[in-house]
Amino acid sequence: MSELRVERVVTADHLDALRTEWNAVAETMRPRLPFGTWEWATAWWRHFREDRAAVGDSLRARAVRDAAGELVAVAPLMLTQRPRVGPLRVRTLHFFGADPNITEIRRMCCRPGREEEVYRAVLADLESDVQAWDWLVLSGIPESASAVLAMPGLRWSREFPDYVLPLPASWDELRASLKPNTKRSLRQCYNSLRRDGLSPKRIVVSAPEQMESGLEHLFRLHTALADQKGASRHPDVFRARRTRSFLVDVCLALARRDVTRLFLLEVEGKVVAARVGFVLGEELYLYYSGYDPAYGRYSVMTTMLAEAIKWAIENRLTLVNLSTGNDASKARWGPREIVFREAVMVRPRMRARLAHGAVAVARAAARSAWIAGLAFRLLGRRAG
């Protein structure tokens, strides 16, 4: 029998009161993620919570304590209703992070080794409140809690990888471990600038009073990358004012704890590349980036990443998290893959099952339309 006690957190004041305990739990997690901190969760709730007739979010978080009253985990859950009232509304229970690609990994904040029993305790509490939701989405389930996926009523839906790079004691040692084509690419990045008489300079912003002005470089370069024509399209996730305000808010809050690092690459006095990072213990999580397309021929984004990794080694960090998504810019460093899974539980009633099925069909149709549009654009470019 589990001795864990589940508290229901349904007010912002209760959420705020968990700050110190929450961050103490987040510090024990591996890998360390900015999305698991109290600052990220509360900033997200302030900026992205919906409160409209068409859609409304309600706080339904859970705090899990052991027999001694010590906090073991926090499940930052919310209930989303579409529409907010009426007989046709559907009610989804899920973690904070239902945003346009801002929260890269949505998961429970939990002490290592306790994941499976915590998930079981939270699920038992949620099932006792089954009248309050139609379906439940649990994302970011680590491999250490994979047994939870076999629980009755819980259905695996998808998985996504996170890539982490363990760091040696020196940059030379890391470079020696890379494949020949990656070594050659790194040399070309620096040599191409030198051949044109240009010298790159790394700047690292950490002071809260400099963070907001520094982030303006990131926003400018991220938008410039998204707006360039004739290349692979990158969505401008910070185009909306709300997303920019959120990132400024959360970066400032974490900078006050000496967590945020803004890496800037300057060439002849001009910032040409930028990337946000978060130092969590001995780990560096690398977040979104941007660069000036006019300097694309110098591969300044690769140089920016190399400089961030060099900085991490110089500061004796043990790991760089290259974030989610399987692409060549990560694979060339030979990182280790960590897999997170997502599972869904649909309330055992006909109305909930029909509603969930209808939403799934609508989302599949939307994805198909997006893929078809992308293929049309690519084929059109090639044909032209």
Account of the protein in words:
- With 384 residues, this protein is an alpha+beta fold.
- The protein has two domains: 5-162 and 339-348, Aminopeptidase, CATH 3.40.630; 168-317, Gcn5-related N-acetyltransferase (GNAT) (Aminopeptidase), CATH 3.40.630.
- The protein is 39% helix and 27% strand.
- The strands form two sheets. Strands 2-5-6-8-15-9-14-13-12-11-10 form an eleven-stranded mixed β-sheet, sandwiched between helices. It has a four-stranded antiparallel β-sheet with strand order 1-3-4-7, with helices on both faces.
- Strand 13 (283-291), helix 9 and strand 14 (319-324) form a beta-alpha-beta unit.
- Helix 7 (208-227) packs antiparallel against helix 8.
- The protein is globular.
- The chain starts with a strand and ends with a helix.
- The model is unreliable at 374-384 (pLDDT under 50).
What's the quick description here?
This protein is of the alpha+beta class and 384 residues long.
List the helices and strands and how they pair.
Layout: E1 5-9, H1 12-17, H2 19-26, H3 38-48, E2 56-59, E3 61-65, E4 71-75, E5 77-82, E6 90-95, E7 109-110, H4 115-128, E8 135-141, E9 154-166, H5 171-177, H6 180-195, E10 200-205, H7 208-227, H8 241-255, E11 260-267, E12 270-280, E13 283-291, H9 300-314, E14 319-324, H10 328-331, E15 336-346, H11 350-383
Parallel strand pairs: 6-8, 13-14
Antiparallel strand pairs: 1-3, 2-5, 3-4, 4-7, 5-6, 8-15, 9-14, 9-15, 10-11, 11-12, 12-13
Helix pairs in contact: 3-8, 7-8
Q: Please state the structural category.
A: alpha+beta
Give the mean pLDDT: 91
**Count of discrete structural domains:** 2
The percent range for strand residues is 25-35%
Q: CATH H-level name of the largest domain... which superfamily?
A: Gcn5-related N-acetyltransferase (GNAT)
The CATH architecture classification of the largest domain is 3-Layer(aba) Sandwich
Number of strands: 15
The coarse silhouette is globular
Q: What is the CATH third-level topology name of the largest domain?
A: Aminopeptidase
Radius of gyration: 22 Å
- If helices are DSSP runs of H or I spanning 4 or more residues, what is the number of helices? 11
Strands across the major sheet, in which order? 2-5-6-8-15-9-14-13-12-11-10
Terminal Cα separation, in Å? 67 Å
Order of helices and strands: EHHHEEEEEEHEEHHEHHEEEHEHEH
Mind describing the biggest β-sheet? 11 strands, mixed
Helical fraction: 25-40%
Q: Would you state the CATH class of the largest domain?
A: Alpha Beta
Which spans have pLDDT < 50 for at least 5 consecutive residues? 374-384
